[in-house]
Design brief:
about 160 residues; alpha+beta; about 30% helix; about 30% strand
Length: about 160
């Protein structure tokens, strides 16, 4: 067996090190399924209170969320007399953002649902690609729409 020179040993060690670094970087890139980390709108959601109300009372009218690919969420909640009572900006956790993106891209529940009750909530949800192009939308009741209720849970949980 040939004896390796000191220079050859150093070159082999460098080669192993560079190969390991490239392997780690390749693994890191595969862990993020989100196509961008730019401040581009991923989705919007509006939940509206439906029914008959006494105009003299201050009731909740709607809440809206704008979720960006970088994880930032802009949230507002509006009442009929008071106006905007909540106007917040927060960040989703990396895990929640990745789950939200997966739900949006793999969902097949974007068929509109007719509102059949006189009272309750009506939702309007839009989903955009990383270039800002509208891909799909939903309007109606979330009842029996498990993926959409999971999306609702993710965007509402930081507010609780």
């Amino acid at each position: 067996m040939a004896k390796l020179t000191r220079k050859t040993t150093k070159l082999l060690a460098l080669l192993v090190f560079v190969t390991a670094i490239f392997s780690l970087n390749a693994c890191n890139k595969k862990t993020s399924d989100i196509p961008t980390n730019e401040h581009v709108v991923m989705m919007t959601a509006t939940c509206t209170n439906i029914g008959t109300f006494d105009e003299n009372e201050d009731y909740w009218e709607n809440s809206s969320w704008t979720v960006y690919y970088d994880g930032q969420v802009c949230y507002t909640s509006t009442y009929n007399k008071s106006g905007v009572l909540k106007d917040e900006i927060f960040d989703l956790s990396k895990e929640d953002l990745k789950t939200l993106y997966t739900l949006l891209t793999e969902m097949n529940e974007f068929e509109d649902e007719e509102i059949t009750s006189e009272y309750g909530n009506s939702w309007y949800i839009t989903y955009f690609d990383d270039k800002g192009q509208l891909l799909d939308s939903f309007s109606g009741d979330l009842t029996n729409k498990s993926t959409l209720t999971d999306i609702e849970d993710i965007i509402e949980s930081p507010l609780q």
